[in-house]
Known about the structure:
The complex is a heterodimer of chains A (481) and B (180).
Chain A: H1 11-25, H2 30-44, E1 49-55, E2 63-68, E3 79-80, H3 85-93, E4 97-100, H4 112-117, E5 122-130, E6 133-142, H5 151-259, H6 265-276, H7 279-311, E7 320-322, H8 324-339, E8 343-348, E9 355-357, H9 359-376, E10 381-390, E11 393-400, H10 407-410, H11 430-440, E12 444-450, E13 454-462, H12 467-480
Parallel strand pairs in A: 8-10
Antiparallel strand pairs in A: 1-2, 1-6, 2-3, 4-5, 5-6, 7-9, 10-11, 11-13, 12-13
Chain B: E1 2-7, H1 11-22, E2 33-38, H2 41-49, E3 55-58, H3 67-77, E4 82-87, H4 92-100, E5 106-109, H5 114-144, H6 150-161, E6 169-170, E7 176-177
Parallel strand pairs in B: 1-2, 1-3, 3-4, 4-5
Antiparallel strand pairs in B: 6-7
Amino acid sequence: MADATGGITDLAWISALYALGHKAANGANPRQVQQEILEHIVRGFDAESGSIALIVQGTDDQLEIAAGTDLPRGTIGNQLPRGIGVFGHVVATGQPILVNGDAAETGLPVRTNEARNRSTHSAMCWPLRVQERTIGALAVNRAADRPRYTVTDLDQGQALTSLLALVISNHQMHVERDNRIVELQTLNATMQRMNASLEDAQNQVIQAEKLASIGQISAGVAHEINNPVAFVLSNLGSLESYAAQICELLSAYVDAERALSPLPPAFLRARTLRESKDFDFLRGDIVALLAESRDGLMRVKRIVQDLRDFSRGGADETWQMVDLHAALDSTLNIVRNEIKYKASIVKSYGELPEIECLPSRLNQVFLNLLVNAGHAIDAHGTITVSTGISGTEAWIRFSDTGCGIPSDHLNRIFEPFFTTKPVGQGTGLGLSVSYAIVRKHGGRIEVDSELGRGTRFTVLLPVRQSPDVAIEVVKAHAAAT
Amino acid sequence: MSNLLIVDDEPNVLNALRRLCQNSAILPALPDPSVTTFTSPLAALKHVADHKVDLVISDYRMPDMDGAVFLTRVKELRPDAARIILSACTDMDGIIRAINHAGIFRFVSKPWSDHDLKASIIDVLAHRNLLLENRRLADEVRSQRGVISRQQLELERLEMESPGITQVRWSEDGGVLLQD
Lengths: 481, 180
């Protein structure tokens, strides 16, 4: 490797250095590779020890020990004071130096430990430069009993260090690239998360917007429907009374006809006609016809009324004393259509005092729970709505005989956008909105589910928003019932 | 005989109400009702200006003017005519204005119940008659005590019978304008 004078001639040594460079480029541990390179160089220069200091990336001249032989433990990674010492000088000037004898005598701003411990050595230090940029410095030392380095050694080493600088710089770039990739991946993941939460927020806004416009539309639609319903309903009433009068008139004719004997020809024709048209059936059916039509219209009227009560949410959110049974009935009217083919509804109402609440919001809660119950039922089942009072709380329980909720879903069902329904069927908002509404009332929702058997949602609400008043009310209610 | 004026922008509603009011088979029966209907509140106001009207029933949401504004004008023209709003609209503002400004006697929501509506009409008319009777008696007492003259009393009676009869409208050339 090194000849007798310390010159470097061995090609094998150079190719080994290249091999180390490749190893570095392939992503091996940087510290380890730098250490191997240093040891290789120390051998090559027939030195006892050596060290490499590199400029910390992102700074101009902050040096950090990257590798070293014979260094005290824990030195690797230490930062060197800027601008002083042999390394500091070499990096600052960009010129290699040869130090024979006492470093302090070179006139360099030497660090005290350098001066004390290494006063008898022979050392060479080269800047590591890539193009015009200094990336660090390399030093090799010989002990005092060895031949000193010469200027020739320094010049020969100069050629090598540029190669070394390239290897290290390559490696640094490689590491930097890896870091960048990791950084980019993290950034990417963060952006994906942000994207997802943005999407959630957007969905929430869209949903809120949708609910608001449904409210507005249904209020307008209710008005539009009520007008025709009003006159059709009233006309049916008039028609009923006309029909009754006509039937009365016809009955009088029939009576007259019976009283006449023999029947004049004109009456004979009337009787044939009456019999062929089955007058008795017509007279009976006209009553049923009108009653059924009226029944249908009354249903339209009630649905519109419920729709209006329901949509009257948001706008006039005032706390009211409400009979929850009436609220439940009106909500049941709305959902009846959606669930009537899947479930029979059993009402088992207890005694409830009036509850201080936001009725339209509670209607929304009841609606969500009822629709969910309907969705949980596959073929045909039962939904039981029961109510009662316990302590100062009123409870409303919706029990279904549906598929139940798996236990690993139970703690997620109130999360916004958590849904197991197919796309388009559920937004995953129903329960989280319900939860928020009930919390606003100072109440809570309890869930109790058994796979394959069904689910029980219980909404618990304080009867009054102020606890003292609630106690009074419950006492009075208990006394009254 | 009671003179009913009904205003709604939907002719079907007017027809239904006319049938309902005139059909004495649907109880309670109105006492000898004469029903006049308008789809336009402006046309209705023209009619009110020079016809005898006992009760005005108006929709709330109409083109040109809403029910509260319309009935306020009616009240200015005919303070003695009773006023009812019959509407599918239930906005609080409108109801408040109808009560405070137009001084309505009833607010009936659409769709109405035939029986309830007719009962309301009878109630309102009875209430109005009571008010008028009250005033007539009070006037009579005042006249007997000499506070107002018999002539003034007669004028009031005539004006009530035939609105506008006590006011003579003059044309620019000094001629008397007769009602068309």
